[in-house]
């Protein structure tokens, strides 16, 4: 089973909402022989919306093979502020999805999970820099599809976003570290730093909310290869475009 997670989050308590759709061409199938079955195209839809109680965030990834959709994954998170300055919040989240094999078309449901914990959120006064740390209890539900029992876990997450070069560029991303029973008692790690050039900073292009850039999926004990192994380190780049609306 292979997951693809692409996430861009903003810290809770900011004064703006944000939605975007991303298109990623994944180079893993070309650069890594063991990942030759990896889908080459992923689209991502993200939404972040704060309110007086906290914030709601979700994203959905859809992976594509040559003959159509290969799988989908989504996460939805809700935070409730517990301090007056909105820095501390209770965080609740759901993760789930499914994937299919390119050759046999057999589908596999991921072992979905719920997470609950706390978040510490920070932003600069102009919101050009944001940062979030989350400490979460993670519960995996029993999966009848491949006879995997329920189990308890934990996850630590860091999320950031930085505007620089007079807002021409955005450096953003996340890092997750969690206990995954499939990792043979080791920590699984997944991080996806993104670097974007924002075209609406070009004179005359102010209304074009398009960004172009790249993402690098860095993971250990997480990505499955064609031989059924996932106990190694990968750094998989993409070529990407993002429309913010």
Can you walk through the features of this model?
This protein is mostly beta strands and 245 residues long. The chain contains one helix and 14 strands. Strands 1, 2, 3, 4, 5, 6, 7, 8, 9, 10, 11, 12, 13 and 14 form a 14-stranded antiparallel sheet that branches. β10 and β11 form a beta hairpin. The longest helix is centred in the N-terminal third of the chain and has 4 residues.
Structural descriptors:
disordered N terminus; mainly beta; globular
Count the strands? 14
Determine the N-to-C terminus distance: 33 Å
Instruction: Report the principal-axis shape.
Output: globular
Helicity range of the residues?
under 10%
Tell me the structural class.
mainly beta
Helix and strand sequence: EHEEEEEEEEEEEEE
Strand content: over 45%
Low-confidence stretches: 1-15
Mean pLDDT: 88
Largest sheet: 14 strands, antiparallel
Radius of gyration over all CA atoms, rounded: 18 Å
How many individual helices? Answer: 1
SSE topology sketch:
Layout: E1 18-26, H1 28-31, E2 41-50, E3 54-65, E4 68-81, E5 88-100, E6 107-109, E7 113-123, E8 129-140, E9 151-164, E10 169-179, E11 187-191, E12 194-198, E13 210-220, E14 233-244
Antiparallel strand pairs: 1-2, 1-14, 2-3, 3-4, 4-5, 5-6, 5-7, 7-8, 8-9, 9-10, 10-11, 10-12, 11-13, 12-13, 13-14
Give a concise summary:
It contains one helix and 14 strands; from the N terminus they run E-H-E-E-E-E-E-E-E-E-E-E-E-E-E. The two termini are 33 Å apart. With 245 residues, the chain is an all-beta fold.
């Amino acid at each position: 089973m292979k997951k693809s997670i692409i996430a861009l989050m903003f810290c809770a308590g900011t004064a703006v909402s944000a939605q975007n759709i991303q298109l990623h061409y994944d180079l893993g199938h070309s650069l890594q022989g063991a990942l030759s079955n990896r889908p080459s195209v992923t689209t991502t839809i993200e939404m972040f919306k704060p309110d007086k109680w906290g914030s709601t965030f979700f994203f959905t990834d859809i992976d594509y093979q040559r003959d159509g959709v290969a799988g989908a994954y989504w996460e939805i998170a809700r935070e409730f502020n517990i301090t007056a300055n909105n820095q501390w919040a209770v965080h609740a989240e759901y993760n789930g999805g499914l994937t299919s094999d390119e050759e046999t078309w057999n589908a596999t449901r991921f072992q979905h999970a719920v997470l609950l914990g706390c978040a510490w959120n920070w932003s600069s006064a102009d919101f050009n820099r944001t940062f979030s740390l989350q400490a979460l209890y993670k519960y995996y539900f029993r999966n009848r599809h491949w006879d995997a029992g329920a189990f308890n876990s934990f996850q630590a997450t860091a999320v950031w976003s930085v505007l620089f070069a007079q807002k021409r560029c955005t450096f953003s991303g996340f890092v997750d570290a969690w206990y995954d029973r499939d990792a043979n008692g080791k920590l699984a790690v997944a991080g996806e730093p993104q670097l974007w050039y924002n075209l609406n900073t070009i004179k005359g292009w102010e209304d074009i909310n398009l960004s172009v850039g790249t993402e690098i999926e860095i993971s250990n004990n997480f990505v499955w290869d064609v031989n059924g192994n996932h106990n190694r380190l990968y750094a998989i780049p993409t070529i990407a475009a993002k429309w913010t609306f």
